Amino acid sequence: MPKLNEDKEGIRVLMMGNEAIVRGALEAGVNVAAGYPGTPSSEIIENLSKVAQERHLYVEWSTNEKISLEVAAAASFAGLRAICPMKQNGVNVASDFLLHLAGSGTRGGLVLVTCDDPGALSSANEGESRHFARMIEIPLLEPGDFQEAKDMTKWAFELSEELKNVVMLRSVTRMSHASGMVRLGKLPERMVKAEFKCRGPLLDQETGPVSSMPVVYHHTLQQEKLRRARELFEESPFNTYEGPEKPELLVITGSACTLYCREAIHLLGLKDRVGLLKLGTTWPLPPKFMKKYLALTEKILIVEEVIPFLEDSVKILAAEQAAEIGIKTFYGKNDGTIPMVGELNPDLVAAGLSKIMGAPYASMDGEYAKEAQEAAGALAPERDLTFCPGCPHRASFWSIHKALQLDNRKGFVCGDIGCYSLGARPAGFSTVKIAHAMGSGLGLACGFGKLEAFGMDQPTLTVCGDSTFFHAALPALVNAVHHEANTTLIILDNSGTAMTGFQPHPGLPINALGQAAPQIDIAKVCEAMGAKVVIRDPFELEETRATINALLEEEGIKVLILRQICALSPEKKGKKSHTMRIDESRCLGEECGCNRLCTRVFRCPGLIWDKEKKKSRIDEVICAGCGVCADICTSGAIRREEPVSV
Ligand code: SF4
Ligand code: SF4
Questions:
Q1: The whole model's pTM is what?
Q2: Is the previous residue joined to 306 through a cis bond, with omega within 30 degrees of 0?
Q3: Could you write out the DSSP letters of every residue in 199-262?
Q4: What's the gap in Å between 592 CA and the centre of ligand 1?
Q5: Reduced to 3 states, what is the DSSP secondary structure of residue 330?
Q6: Closest residue (by CA) to atom 2 of ligand 2?
Q7: 427-466 per-position pLDDT tens digit
Q8: Ligand in nearest proximity to the CA of 623
Q9: Strand 412-414 and strand 432-434: pairing?
Q10: What is the pLDDT of residues 217-247, one digit of tens each?
Q11: Atom 6 of ligand 1 has which residue's CA nearest to it?
């Protein structure tokens, strides 16, 4: 990605929001970057790793978000500038350390980038990181377009150094993954020496020990820093107003919603009647700046994703200033003008605006939406969320499902977060019954495993991925071993953080820069903890099924590692182990009593039901040649032919 490193000040280039954040960090002279993969944040570390050598950066994929923040904070304590990107779920993981860090303060500029996912396009929830800024008492910035994503990131480092505290910069999926034009700034030649000064007096933030203790002293200091942030925000160029001097309605917004609001105001032709107050510094709000605009009108609409964070803050300010600015009528999420869940778009904002302003707008009405849905249903090919052709997880869940059926004690699977979360859907034979945070599967199984005293006799299995194992399942395994939990942990080891783009983890012999790194053996770690460990190839269906059934009979904590590299991994992509054929003389389709096991139940996308011939067929274009379907066909109609390598 040469443009990220382009040293041509003033030129305009098309950049994804995450690239703009990277460029802003480079222009700020960032030295260290650490993160854990998670959509929509992953491209920040990925792009920084690409320019690491040239820009003299240290970049790592850490084991989890808390550790990545600790790595970045160490750089800051040694006087360097550091960035730590993560998705919204990651902030929960990092929040334990974040609370201490906010108390201790920082030295070199430290920017925590949180990429939220309104609408949960790639997430298991649409949690909001903004609340952490308020709860943990650190400043929050939200870029409203791609240029701001770059400029604001650069400024965030300066702000962090001025305040001597971590600064949170919040993006959302449509900011991180959409693209826009960005004017480049200068790349600095900033070779700084890292040094942790630790021989100064106890309360000297630049040279003394770094800790949030004594707590009351540091907490007081932290609140002074927030007051200073508020003062600085009064003059921030990232807070702007556009619209008439005396608008009938003031729309207050920020982040990607700025773009939706601009478009909605334009669509309704309301430029002369509606003012748009775009806020980039969304916590703490600058009271004098806000008062000036809140005083302009009586009606105020607040547009934001996902829950009414800004709305609540603005209402508090308006209540405090009511004697001077008068009583306001608020519209937003609390009164239902703007939806409280999911992503927004210009149409949803226009619908809300049209209701308040009485402006006619041909938004997508219910009838149109119904017709569009019907057309999509009739015209688009049927497509369920499924595993890729040749995905080892389909084979794993086939065996797990069969084993639980044969065990016949109403056993169930506690799942985790990864591609294998599809184990809860038909693609995984609806095997996973519970899924929460990363690492929670085994923690929950420990809990279920202790309910025997209350009459519970259902066996539990837990599935987690190899990256998740290092991220958060390890402490749960310690708990399971120590408390003699009766459960089986199945590690679906496909050699990478596949869901987010094959980022390496400690179980692989490479690091974020693609350099050789010590590999940590999952099996040995589990054995060292005292768990019984068995390793199988999930493509060996019968052996895997039999192993699970045997493990279900055993007491204590057992670990089954199902090891088979992801079908889409760079090492495997395009390579087939087998050419597959259907022997039409053996495939009796509906007649043979299998109930079309291959296309109705196993449902690998590489298998097709040929309606004319009434036989199954292999789609040679997408079949990955794993050969697993040959073992599920009870008629022996699916054949592995010679091993091939394409
Ligand atoms: S290929 Fe095998 S499983 Fe599929 S329909 Fe034919 S006989 Fe049944
Ligand atoms: S061999 Fe069978 S299971 Fe494997 S990818 Fe091809 S069709 Fe799917």
A1: 0.91
A2: yes
A3: SS-TT-TTTS---S-SHHHHHHHHHHHHHHHHHHHHT-TT-EEES-SS-SEEEEE-TTHHHHHH
A4: 8
A5: strand
A6: 629
A7: 999 999 999 999 999 999 999 988 888 999 999 999 999 9
A8: 2
A9: parallel
A10: 999 999 999 999 999 999 999 999 999 999 9
A11: 587
